[in-house]
Sequence to fold (116 residues):
Amino acid sequence: MIVGIGVDLVDVARFAAALERTPALRGRLFTEAEGGLPPASLAARFAAKEAVAKALGAPSGLRHLEAEVVREPGGRPVLRVTGRAAEVARDLGVRRWHLSLSHDGGVAVAYVIAEA
Fold:
């Protein structure tokens, strides 16, 4: 059963400019493993974090670092959810996350499904 769906779209150039303008932003938004990726990949991961919040119903107290995009050995992106986001997911009965990322034509998109 689907508990929630979230989608987010990010303008890559605008996002890259924000990271350049405010270097500390990278540390507030991304884990150490995520932080060194190129701008288009970071924009897609930021979209994923926003999509997770939407899939959970946008509860208060979530932090961007609580949703991390990691890669399986074959390269497939998967979500690792911790902290308040994990608590909310547990309360909603979320047992599995589905994630799709893409970036092309100057935009990055993430689609998240939370499944019970």
Summary: The first strand starts at residue 2 and ends at 11. The chain is about 40% helix and 35% strand. The CA atoms of residues 70 and 78 lie 5 Å apart.
